[in-house]
Specification:
This protein has one domain. By secondary structure, the protein is an alpha+beta fold. The protein is globular and about 45 Å long. Strands 1, 2, 3, 4, 5, 6, 7, 8, 9, 10 and 11 form an 11-stranded mixed sheet that branches. It has 9 helices and 11 strands.
Length: 279
């Protein structure tokens, strides 16, 4: 069972070590600095994820469909029960059928780079043959610039909203009206992603999750402002997906107690809902 304090500590832990390499090498070797941040997250995932899966960096291949291969992916989470085409240390080539999750890791994102990151992550689905999997983007950004610039409206008091559906319908395109370039880039990327990217950690505070309407023709992205809990909820959702994919899903009560400790749930922290069509 994860307490709120424990989940909050995950943000503090990752952020406290993310800049250590930068202190030594400055801005002369951005590639290595970025790789260090991937390793930090990989080690934390290896510590927390079920033993039925492993974590690596590398490529996904689909030999069922003209030998398709992905671009290099920062983090791949895969089921241990499948044989690996190739593996060396923390690098591997993974058969798409064993993949339960992928994560792109970034230090921070500009408007241009965010759209590219979402596009790259979305393209992975072309290899997955409609399999459901965790497709996440993890951004270390400290949250200040994202929180203050991306969302200009104050958090709504959802407890006073009698018709959430109507309220969200009226606000579903409010991100489009934001003058901030980062917001426009995010909306454009999510429109094109059409649910293929389903979890985003925007610094320690903003968590984005895609919800399917079960008819697979439309869905929506919910944005939550959960102070210092975004990292923990990102990882908790990954664990949830893994448990479901490996045949040991938690029931509703267990999920809430073990993975999502906010007693009032995320809905109280929702700040935006953005609807997308998936066809």
């Amino acid at each position: 069972m994860y307490s709120i304090d424990y989940i909050r500590s995950l943000s503090f832990e990752l952020l406290s070590v993310k800049d250590r390499v930068r202190h030594f090498i400055g801005d002369r070797h951005w590639g290595e600095d970025g790789r260090f941040k991937e390793v930090i997250l990989m080690e934390k995932l290896e510590e927390m994820l079920p033993s039925s899966v492993s974590v690596c960096t590398g490529f996904i291949v689909n030999n069922d469909d003209e030998n398709k291969i992905s671009k290099q992916i920062d983090i791949i989470i895969y089921n241990n029960s499948y044989p690996l085409p190739f593996s060396l240390n923390d690098f591997a080539i993974i058969d798409y059928r064993s993949v339960v999750g992928v994560i792109e890791v970034k230090s921070k994102q500009s408007a241009m780079s965010l759209a590219k990151t979402i596009k790259k992550s979305s393209e992975i689905s072309e290899l997955m043959n409609n399999r459901e999997y965790f497709n996440g983007i993890f951004i270390y950004e400290d949250g200040t610039s994202i929180d203050n610039k991306l969302f200009k409206t104050s958090r709504p008091d959802l407890n006073k909203i009698t018709d959430l559906q109507d309220k969200h319908t009226k606000r579903s395109n409010s991100l489009k009206r934001q003058p901030n370039k980062l917001a426009h880039s995010l909306v454009k990327g999510l429109e094109e992603a059409t649910g293929r990217v389903n979890h985003i950690c925007l610094g320690p505070h903003i968590f984005v999750k895609y919800w399917d309407n079960n008819n697979h023709t439309s869905g929506y992205y919910d944005f939550y402002d959960i102070q210092d809990l975004s990292v923990g909820y990102f990882i908790a959702n990954l664990i949830d997906v893994i448990l479901t994919s490996t045949g040991v899903p938690l029931n509703t009560l267990e999920r809430e107690k073990r993975l999502y400790p906010l007693p009032e749930g995320k809905i109280s922290y929702e700040i935006e809902r953005y609807r997308v069509n998936t066809q």
